[in-house]
Every structure is written in C-alpha cells, then in structure tokens.
C-alpha cells in the first residue's frame, strides 16, 4: 500500500515540475519569439496542468471522504453528484488539452524548419517534446479504449451465442 502512495506522490511532484517549467519559460520568452503563440501556449498548458491536478485531488479527496462515511440504511451512497460534476469538468479539461496539444504540435512543427533567432530553443523543445509525449499517451489510451470496447462487445456476443446454444440444445 505504501508503494502506491509513494508512486502517487512522485507522479504528482512530476506533474508539478512540468507546469512550473512551462510557466517560467513562457513568461521569460513572452514577446521574444518569432511565433508569439509558443510562449503563450506554454503558459496556457501550464495553467491547464495545474487545474487538472487540483481537480484530480478534489475527486480523490471526495472518494476517500465517501469511504470514511457510513453507508446509509438504504444502501445508497451520498453525494455521488458532486464527483459527477468534477469528473465532467476533468473530461472537458482533457478535451481542451487535446486541442492544445494538436495546436502546439502544429506551431512547433512550423518553427522546426526555420532558424531560431529570437526564441530560445528551450521554448521550442519544451512545446514539441510535450506534444510528442502527450500524443503518444493519447494514442496508447485510444488503443486501450478500443481494445476494452472490443472485448466488451466480444463478451456480449459470447453470452448471446451461449444463450442461443443453450436454448437450441434444450
């Protein structure tokens, strides 16, 4: 159990370092790049990551709080609606992050072919590196989601075939 807590703390420290890095580079290079959108992109994504982590901890806190509460006599859990809204906001935020990653990839790719005069290479490499890692993560997540969907459909199909065979045989 303690290794899960250590993993959670280390992962969240990592997710704290990235937005601080993005915010510092974005503010230092604002107005200094050929493409003025790259530093603004870093600032925007840094803020999105911080908001995402705050919502993550809020959802986790609500789950722990619900586990600590007594289950009512009728067996229903209290306050399920509160986490529903936080999770909905988190999904919307992830959609905005996906659009931001696509825009950052396009803007940094346009900049890669040109010589960098004013903008520091840390801006370009931060944007393009984050976009590459995020794109790989989104692709793996999409493949996993498709796999889970296909396995769910297969399980439903297997149940229907089994029921059909039982009804045919009996």
Automatic annotation (TrEMBL):
The chain crosses the membrane at residues 7-26, 38-56, 84-107, 127-150. The keyword Membrane applies. Keywords: Membrane, Receptor, Transmembrane, Transmembrane helix. This is Serpentine Receptor, class E (Epsilon). It comes from Caenorhabditis elegans.
């Amino acid at each position: 159990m303690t290794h899960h807590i250590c993993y959670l703390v280390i992962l969240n420290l990592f997710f704290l370092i990235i937005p601080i890095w993005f915010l510092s580079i974005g503010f230092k290079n604002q107005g200094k790049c050929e493409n003025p959108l790259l530093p603004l992109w870093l600032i925007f994504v840094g803020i999105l990551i911080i908001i995402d982590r705050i919502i993550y901890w809020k959802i986790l806190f609500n789950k722990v709080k619900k586990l600590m509460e007594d289950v009512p006599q009728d067996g229903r859990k209290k306050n399920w609606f509160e986490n529903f809204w936080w999770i909905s906001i988190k999904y919307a935020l992830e959609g905005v992050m996906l659009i931001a990653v696509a825009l950052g990839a396009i803007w940094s790719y346009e900049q890669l072919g040109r010589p960098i005069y004013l903008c520091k290479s840390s801006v370009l490499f931060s944007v393009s590196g984050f976009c590459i890692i995020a794109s790989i993560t989104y692709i793996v997540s999409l493949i996993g989601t498709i796999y889970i969907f296909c396995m769910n459909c297969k399980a439903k199909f297997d149940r229907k075939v089994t029921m059909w065979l039982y009804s045919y045989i009996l």
